[in-house]
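Explain this fold:

***
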Amino acid sequence: MNAKMTQYVVPATSLKSLLLLILHLVPVISINITPIPSDPASLESWASTNILPFSARATDPALDPTLVTAEKNVVVIKVRQDGSGQFKTVTEAVNSIPEGNTKRTIVWIGAGVYKEKITVNRKKPFVTFYGEPADMPKLTFDGTAAKYGTVDSASVIMESDYFMAVNIIFENSSPEPDGKRVGAQAEAVRISGDKSSFYNCKFIGFQDTLCDDRGNHFFKDCEIQGTVDFIFGNGKSLYLKTELRQLAKQGGVISAHAREKEEVDSGYNFVHCTVSGPGAANTHLGRAWKSRATVTFIYSFLGPVVNPEGWSDFGNSTNDGTIFFGEYMNRGPGSNTNSRNKFTKLLTDQAAKPFLDINYIKGSTWLLAPPQVK
């Protein structure tokens, strides 16, 4: 049976309105985003064209306007224990930054060990902690969950947006939990602000070393040490070329992700990372702390410390259909997937694509290369 087709003509005014709507919905991105390469030797070349300094993006309309304003107005505060800077402690320097800060404020920290419990509160955005790579300062404290509660036990708490750390050692010096002391877990840092980045930093602790709490975060060339759940929280983070070092010979768990609602956009994505440590085949890459925990390992070297199961549902099989533990093109003795738990997702080329550029964390709108401080 033949049917007549009805043609609808869109008025010119409506077409113009539609085009304007589309232009508003589609972001303008000037930076040329390309996928993270599979070859480790090409990674630095990729970074040099995908993670640019502000000087190369000052007129880029894709950058957050408030970030552009802040980066055009840079303030440097020197912290030196010998008295040659404006302050002798990091706490004093942070306290000097006004609430409602609108300038990129670089706290340039001299060499040394700073035993302080530091908080950068949410009203102080655009703060950078900067150290010299040849003599990195250590920010350390010995807070525990027993004394402060888990989330407030961190030596350094970053609640503000647009935080950056470069060449800094973050440590919680509390002793390793022995299974007998209640509340012995101890964070080195808690990151609760959005759009935070960390370059060439070390995070030292045992249980709960790094609370990747919430927001979009980026880590490159870092080292994270711990024993149990030493990266945990509900952030959405890209870890690039970072070493995850399991310290306990008896093994443990690297990540404990807390996503539990389908509409929440969060996850931990480890790309070109290294899993190392002294144990043998007894460390899980992640566990289902919450029902929709989301963690991926891509292009990474998984050492012999990795348990052949790969992942743990934390003894709750009802979560097996909702958790997302993915792997793609990893290498090393711990990368063999033949004995992986059944809920492991072995990603196809197409499924891996969303995890392979900086817009996994909306990076084109805020991610910048570390500054050159002189």
Residues 227-360 form a domain with the Pectate Lyase C-like fold (CATH 2.160.20.10). The mean pLDDT is 93. The two ends are 80 Å apart (CA to CA).
